[in-house]
Design goal:
- With about 110 residues, the chain is mainly α.
- The chain contains five helices and no strands.
- It has two domains: about 45 residues; about 40 residues.
- Helix content is about 65%, strand content about 0%.
- Helix 1 crosses helix 3, helix 2 crosses helix 3 and helix 4 packs antiparallel against helix 5.
Length: about 110
C-alpha cells in the first residue's frame, strides 16, 4: 500500500495520540488502508522517528555519468582492438563472425 503524504502525516499525528493500526482501519475505511500496511508504517515511525523514506533509497534515476560513459567507451575500444588482433592471428574463427562483431562494437 502506498500512502499519500497527507495519509502518512495523519497516521503519525494520530499514532502519537494513541491510535492503533486496527483503529486506523476502522475509522478510515474510505482510505482502504490495511492493518498490515499501517503496522509497517508505524514500525518505520517507531524505528526511525519519521514516516518519510530514507534519502537515497530506491533505484537511481540514471547510471549515465561522464565517468561511466568514458569507461564504456574505453572498454569498447579495447574490445575492438582485441577483435582486430584476433582476426589476423586466429585462423579458427570465422572472419564473417568477427567482422560482424567489429561492426557492431564500432557502431
Amino acid at each position: 500500500m502506498v500512502f499519500s503524504d497527507e495519509g502518512k502525516n495523519l497516521i503519525k499525528s494520530l499514532y502519537l495520540k494513541g491510535y492503533t493500526a486496527k483503529r486506523f482501519t476502522d475509522e478510515f475505511p474510505e482510505k482502504s488502508w490495511t492493518k498490515r500496511s499501517v503496522n509497517r508504517l508505524l514500525k518505520k515511525l517507531w524505528d526511525t522517528g519519521t514516516v518519510e523514506g530514507r534519502s537515497g533509497s530506491g533505484r537511481p534515476r540514471s547510471a549515465r555519468t561522464e565517468e561511466n560513459v568514458e569507461t564504456v567507451n574505453d572498454l569498447t575500444s579495447r574490445c575492438l582492438h582485441m577483435l582486430k588482433y584476433f582476426k589476423y592471428s586466429v585462423n579458427t574463427l570465422n572472419n564473417k563472425y568477427i567482422n560482424t562483431l567489429i561492426i557492431q562494437l564500432h557502431a
